[in-house]
Amino acid sequence: MKATYMFGAGDVRVIDAPMPVIQQPADAIVRTVRACVCGSDLHPYHSLPTTEEGLSMGHELIAVVEEVGAEVKTLTKGDFVVVPFAFSDNTCVFCQEGMHTACVHGGWYGTPQAAGLQAEYARIPQADGSAVIVPGVDPETASDDLLASLLALSDVYLTGFHAAYMAQIKPGQTVAVVGDGAVGLSAVLAAKQLGADTVILMGRHESRTDLGREWGATHVVAERGAEGIAKVMEITNGEGAHAVLEAVGHMPAYEQSYGIVRPGGVISRVGVPQYEEAPIGFGSLFGKNARLAGGPAPVRAYLEDAIRQVLDGTINPGKVFDRVVSIDDVPAAYAAMDSRESLKVMVDPSL
């Protein structure tokens, strides 16, 4: 079985790995229909220490169920499923409160608990609580556009949606999105779905911001830092944005966010923060009565509704994918996303 491993910064390889097997009675084994490379995969791509064993990569997947463990009740062989980027039981107290990424029996892919999902086959722990069936769709005959949009639900779109949801966006509000990557663009789409009137996309890559405009951005601000803050304040008549959706994870993006949030507003972060310490005092959050929200998206909490929206054509989040590669070409996909030649790359194991 082919699988993607990272052996150090910039060193991505496709290797022959053992076929996954049922390890726990709640597991399922699935065959990959589509996987992809995530912007968060680029963090270790820049910084992972060199190792001989390598790090199993990937956490976004749509797949067909091949085998289920003895305790799996909701899935059977042949089911077509969306697999969220974190696994969860969907029954613990945190799952019931909608925080599946804090599941007491959950975890992450690409860890000792579960191998990564940029592979031809994968083991899905807590399969009943994690994988969600796509009703009435045959992946063998489904359109590429439909498969792309379903794949986007495993992480990227619903991470953008989580940013908007945690910001409690209300109809008529002004929303600023910091970052024109795939998650930022997804946040634009989600903000419009929740009724935002003005959506300001802060990004400077025209091919990306064009999609942002298609998805509902009313303004694009290419400037950064103090100039970017001034531009947003000009657009908002000096008031700032009710909600700032930060989809980058680096300190300059956070600084830009607290510079443009309006008094009483909220900053919702879904870009994985590459820092632990950040300003929260009078000049950043406290003086504005601004709130800080966001975190790892509990994709499982949103999946059923999002699948229905994709199937009925309400949303088409798969437009974030601008390149498709075979699994053998995954290392080139990392390089293309790192150099910004590609926005987000899909992996089709059948190629």
Automatic annotation (TrEMBL):
An example Gene Ontology molecular-function term: metal ion binding
Cofactor: Zn(2+)
Domain of life the protein comes from: Bacteria
Keywords from the named record: Metal-binding, Zinc
Protein name per UniProt: Alcohol dehydrogenase catalytic domain-containing protein
Higher taxonomy: Bacteria, Bacillati, Actinomycetota, Actinomycetes, Micrococcales
PANTHER family: DEHYDROGENASE, ZINC-CONTAINING, PUTATIVE (AFU_ORTHOLOGUE AFUA_2G02810)-RELATED, ZINC-TYPE ALCOHOL DEHYDROGENASE-LIKE
Domain (Enoyl reductase (ER)) ranges: 8-347
Pfam families noted in UniProt: ADH_N, ADH_zinc_N
